Amino acid sequence: SVSAAFWKHLRRLGLQDFPCGLGSWNKSRFDARTSPCGGQPGLGADPAGQEEAMPLDEESPEVLLELLSDRHSPWAPPPDCSPQDQHLREMAVLAPELVRGSCVFQVLRSLRIVGKGMEEVDEGLLQLQQLEELILSANQISRITSANLPRTLKVLELCCNAVADLQDLCAQPPPELQHLGLGYNMLCGPSQDKYLTADFWPNLVSLDLSFNNLTDLLALVSQLSSLQKLRVLVLQGNPLALIHTYRGFLVDSLPKLSILDYIHIGPDERHRFHSLAKQPELIRSEARVVVSIGEIKGVPDPSACQQLEVGSKAPVITYSYCVTYEF
Questions:
Q1: What average pLDDT does the chain have?
Q2: Where is the segment annotated Disordered (predicted)?
């Protein structure tokens, strides 16, 4: 589950271990904060504003931070450490009380768990009450229960999973979501088109549906047209993208769209495809695919058969091959 992967990741960051967290290496700095007569809160400043001498058995915050950032240090960030991870580690040095236990839930704004084999988005995610960005790409998620998603989410990325049905995701979707990434999943049209409307995603600005199995361009566009804030759309890799008038029809049907399949839509292109949306009869559910075979190894070449002498009674051997493509 996401919760299990999250806690495993936190333990890997070592937020409670040297040089992070609370311990003998920084106890005097934080004892003053919690002491009833500790004076002014701060990082080792006395009432007169002068720095206190650092105890011999302790380390300064600067030294501890350097141990976290120096690539030659035993506590250097791992290769896959994200900026958010490093920020948490630094916070665990400067203000360790903010990342202890459940307090870390109030700090996280972004959570990225990629390629960890997760299958379930569980309710434990609701503890992250300030979460705005959730990236769960390259896992094994087939079903997302929207009731388990924080209501504060603005970005939800589920690329490269096994999502085939959006019904559960659209039961109680995060109301402020601005980006929804569903590329490289198993969505089939037109059964899923009905979930791609403003009724479920009123604030959606960016939508990635690339490399699924969406086939009905007219039905999909009729639903997407309700997304008044949509500016970025990715549909490449779907069968409907093979339709000859695919791009022109989308450009004219969605006049507020700025980027289609990672390509900016300019005024010239809009002018060129003007009124195409009023001619749906031009959209034919067929496509022509030209395949060129560069080289085949391991089979005899029919054109290289040895020429037989005139009058020869030797048997004639011929070769023929059939190449089949399945769509």
A1: 83
A2: 34-57
